[in-house]
Write a structure and sequence with these properties.
4 helices; binds pyrazine-2-carboxylic acid; two-stranded antiparallel ribbon; binds zinc ion; alpha/beta; 22% helix; 6-stranded parallel β-sheet
Length: 199
């Protein structure tokens, strides 16, 4: 029988109000995600986990500001405020998130020279995080995504899931987006076109 897992994406303090890269209403997803966690047999969390001075931080590029883009060897990269620095309170899960049941925490973005939005691949779209192998070895083929941010880490993860032949559902009411230059509408459409079920 097809096994299912819930993938909880980046429900961390820096993506919640008051955080370094706050997503509007980011904390509102926590009770909804706690309900989902209670309903799923298997739960995986992702955690954005950057070293200080990470190349996705605008502060690492003299003259650049957050939300500008630059060319990196692996393609275009949006620059962000410093966020989710390893071991800082901003990188911790939201204190109300009931994460104890989680079987795996996938940390991402820990290589200084490359960002990683997706739970499956870094932003070069080729360096794997190991999550696909972990899920496949366990016979898990159906994935439900929730968390932050809809148009970045959630969307990149769901799109890669489809590319890797997993079934993918996104619980939109348990997600909040950044919406940079129309990215929310663009990524929502890309998910639909890829066969991601949006509920
Ligand atoms: C994210 C921007 C930078 C996310 C992470 O979790 O969507 N966005 N790092
Ligand atoms: Zn990040």
């Amino acid at each position: 029988m097809a096994e299912e897992a819930l993938i909880v994406v980046d429900v961390q303090n820096d993506f919640c109000p008051g955080g370094a890269l706050a997503v509007e209403g980011g904390d509102e997803v926590v009770p909804l995600i706690n309900d989902l966690i209670a309903r799923f047999d298997h739960v995986v969390l992702t955690q954005d986990w950057h070293p200080a001075g990470h190349s996705s931080f605008a502060s690492s590029h003299p003259g650049k500001s957050p939300f500008q883009t630059i060319g990196m060897p692996y393609g275009e990269q949006t620059l962000w405020p410093d966020h989710c620095v390893q071991g800082t309170p901003g990188a911790a899960f939201h204190e109300a998130l009931e994460w104890t049941k989680a079987e795996l925490v996938i940390r991402k973005g820990f290589r200084k020279g490359i960002d990683s939005y997706s739970a499956f691949f870094e932003n070069d779209h080729t360096t794997p995080t190991g999550l696909a192998g972990y899920l496949r070895e366990r016979g898990i083929t159906r994935l439900t995504f929730a968390g932050l941010a809809t148009d970045f880490c959630v969307a990149f993860s769901a799109l890669d899931a489809r590319q890797l032949d997993f079934e993918a559902t996104v619980e939109l009411r348990a997600c909040r987006g950044i919406d940079l230059g129309g990215s929310l509408a663009i990524m929502t459409q890309r998910m639909r076109d890829a066969g991601v079920v949006l509920v």
